[in-house]
Write a structure and sequence with these properties.
Family: Belongs to the peptidase S66 family.
Shape: globular
Number of domains: 2
Structural class: alpha/beta
Oligomer: single chain
CATH topology of the largest domain: Rossmann fold
Keywords: Carboxypeptidase, Hydrolase, Protease, Serine protease
EC number: 3.4.17.13
Largest sheet: 7 strands, mixed
Organism: Megamonas hypermegale
Strand order of the largest sheet: 6-10-9-8-7-12-13
GO molecular function, one term: muramoyltetrapeptide carboxypeptidase activity
CATH class of the largest domain: Alpha Beta
Radius of gyration: 21 Å
CATH architecture of the largest domain: 3-Layer(aba) Sandwich
Number of strands: 13
Number of helices: 9
Strand content: 15-25%
Length: 342
């Protein structure tokens, strides 16, 4: 009897130990390091290609901020609408994560193609070399994969295509601050452009892990190994060039898939060239579509957030704890956790 009790005790302790380790691994979020003067930014093209683009002004500006710049070997490749073959684009990204000379990875542009390389990425290698990856639009596929497969933070922010040699603007300043900092501000309050007013579709307060990006890409990855686990999250969405019915269709897909049913709150960013912007006969406006889903979801929702396609594009960390204060008088998004290490 004593022997049985001892065996039971040992098995119980092993089970508790395994459970503790598993929980620790689940809660362990990988983070890159905030850049210092002299650090190196790697430029990579995981999706569409150069198409004759001149990036010399963008490189000059990054260098003027005190950073070295390294171009991926296949950056100037072109294969149809892609920046080279899938294996080339995946190799560039894998190699930049493995390259100790590269401290952060900035994407050239979006377009299309990131989803095609997700199966070719070496997630075990990436876990060993956490770095901040910055981009938006089609790069949403990479943000989702890095979170689902590596539990790694990343940043939804301006890309090389958005940087020019003009004086600093909100988007530039956000990128510059985001690269060199560990949070969006000292108190975590997301800084808004001058005169930018957030709107509230559903009032309330919510906390959760901030994830998301481009609506079309998130919908396209439903049912794949890279689909977002939205449990207890704050979901960020932005879009470009889609009619209200198409947005409705994608949102309904997210609802039916269960993704929208698990979120704690939602942040709606830039909706550039999404029409109609005001109600019309026999049509819903884009805002009306989101109002319907805010009502259906019954969670706090803020609207008109300055992140996504367009000239005003803030630096939004993903994979961090955040809080929505959807107060009709002063709606706010607060980033409660550092997205990078010192």
């Amino acid at each position: 009897m004593k022997y049985i009790a001892e065996v039971f005790f040992i098995l119980t302790m092993l089970l508790l130990s395994t459970t503790t380790i598993f929980a620790s691994e689940q809660n362990n979020v990988l983070k890159g390091t905030a850049l210092k003067p002299g650090d190196c930014i790697g430029i990579v093209a995981p999706a569409s290609g150069m198409d004759g683009m001149d990036i010399s002004m963008a490189i000059n500006k990054l260098q003027s901020w005190g950073y070295k710049v390294k171009l991926s070997p296949n950056l100037y490749q072109q294969a149809g609408y892609l920046a080279g073959e899938d294996i080339q684009r995946a190799a560039d990204l894998n190699n930049f994560f493995a390259d100790d000379e590269v401290d952060a990875i900035l994407c050239l542009r979006g377009g299309y193609g990131s989803e095609r390389i997700l199966d070719l990425l070496d997630y075990e290698l990436i876990k060993q070399h956490p770095k901040l990856l910055i981009g938006y639009s089609d790069i949403t596929a990479l943000h989702m994969a890095l979170w689902q497969k590596c539990h790694m933070t990343s940043a939804h922010g301006a890309m090389v295509i958005d940087i020019n040699d003009s004086s600093l603007n909100y988007t530039d300043e956000q990128l510059r601050h985001g690269l060199s900092s560990t949070n969006v501000s000292e108190d975590g309050l997301f800084p808004l452009p001058y005169n930018q007013k957030l709107e509230v579709l559903n009032a309330g307060v919510a906390e959760g892990t901030l994830i998301g990006g481009n609506l079309s890409v998130i919908a396209a990855l439903c049912g794949t190994p890279y689909a977002l686990d939205s449990k207890d999250c704050i979901l960020f969405l932005e879009e470009v060039g889609e009619d209200s019915y198409a947005i409705d269709r994608m949102m309904w897909q997210l609802w039916q898939s269960g993704l929208l049913k698990n979120v704690k709150g939602m942040v709606i960013g830039n909706l550039r060239h999404c029409e109609p912007t005001s109600p019309k006969q026999y049509d819903y406006s884009v805002r009306q579509v989101f109002e319907q889903y805010a009502k259906l979801m019954q969670v706090p929702v803020i609207y008109n957030f300055p992140v996504g396609h367009g000239s005003i594009n803030g630096f939004l960390p993903l994979g961090v704890k955040a809080k929505i204060n959807a107060d009709n008088t002063n709606p706010q998004l607060i980033i409660e956790e550092n997205y990078a290490q010192n």
